[in-house]
Amino acid sequence: MIYSPKLSLKMMRHIFINRLKRNYKFPYVLMLEPLFKCNLSCSGCGKIREYKDILDKQLSLEECMDAARQAQAPVVSITGGEPLLHPQINEIINSLLEKKYFVYLCTNGLLLKDFLDDIAPSNELSIVVHIDGLFENHDSLSGNKNVFSRAMEAINKAVSLNFKVRTNTTIYKNSDAREILNLFTFLMKTGVQSIMVSPAFSYEHVENELFMDKMSIYKIFKEIYNNLNGTKVYNTPLYWEFLTGKRNLQCTPWANPAFNPKGWKSPCYLITDSHYPTYAELLQNTDWEKYVAGKDKRCENCMMHSGFEASSIMSLRIKDLAKILKWSFTGKVK
Ligand code: SF4
Fold first, then answer.
1. Full-model pTM
2. How far is ligand 1, taken at its centre, from the CA of residue 36, in Å?
3. What is d(CA 312, CA 310) in angstroms, rounded to the nearest whole number?
4. Where exactly are the structural domains of the chain?
5. Cβ(217) to ligand 1 under 6 A?
6. How close is the Cα of 301 to the center of ligand 1, in Å?
7. pLDDT band for position 208 (50/70/90)?
8. Is the CB of 65 under 6 A from ligand 1?
9. Distance from the alpha carbon of residue 128 to the mean position of ligand 1, in angstroms
10. Is the pLDDT of residue 229 over 90?
């Protein structure tokens, strides 16, 4: 199954309980950013640029656990920066697992091979390696040599040690659909469980020649979608319908709240108007409707999974059940 039955049940229970309490704004996934320091300088990354003044700051283990406790999301996605540069990353992961959170460790893979000697595989831990293209193209986007081969060495080791490994691919304006499809075939052969995709977000702090408008996003995602063949995909088929222009979704920025050394980021993982000291203050003080209605210029071409994957689940109707069931069991979105 594409999600473990345990996670599916936990997520369904979480949604059901919140609905029962008439709570419609609740987190699905906590985006935990324990530090912004990174060992790469990828051309499309807004984080290392937006937070360049606090690259030496990091969250403590206690702050990470307190953020998870405040959000109460079933899944904690550890991002950054490069999380494996955090000196307490093992303790953070193990403490979250002990508290029964599902953990997604997002990494560029450079330090992963050695890190695998220090941590045990778990059904609740997924390692998500960021790969944006094959060989030279991934290296070029990452701004360094041998990034692709080092990430693949780590993926091979993780698979051989029975870790759950997924990959995350960002699609840019200059991405080639054929190459992306070849990348997915290549990744499937290495034994990764599934791939995730998202169109690049046009960060204010990054030159925008890398980013697409919605029409271009529909075009490239249609080409990828039509040729996915045996690729197992972690994004829901409903999110794919959104990416290919077949489904309209409104963003749910509260579903993936982000916590980092500056606090709780408002309104979302991607854009910043302010930071709040507590999750309750983030919820209370953010003008959510402004973003849901797409009234902010920065949201114009945003189709990122952090804003819309939860929306796709909320848009589920009876007529969608067959495709959701098929995807849950096979990972196929078409
Ligand atoms: S559409 Fe939503 S997720 Fe995207 S930038 Fe706007 S508020 Fe953030």
1. 0.96
2. 20
3. 5
4. 5-330
5. no
6. 9
7. low
8. no
9. 22
10. no
